[in-house]
Model the fold of this input.
Amino acid sequence: MIYKISYVVRGGTHPGAILDSDTLPKVDDEVTFGGALFGIVEVMELMPARGGFGFLHATCVPLDEAEDD
Done:
């Protein structure tokens, strides 16, 4: 399964990204994109998986901000 993941950064401090992954993201996972490290705080399925693809939304925060929460 390939997961198409829309990463949105809470607070608008970063434009986010849309990335492919072969692993399902989970809350408290860390992800790097755009040269920065983020902590995932929410994961939602956008639509049921089909054709070997899963479509997800992940809300994340810059890692230093995630540690302050």
Observations:
- The longest helix spans residues 63-68.
- The chain is about 10% helix and 60% strand.
- The mean pLDDT is 92.
- The chain has one domain: 2-62.
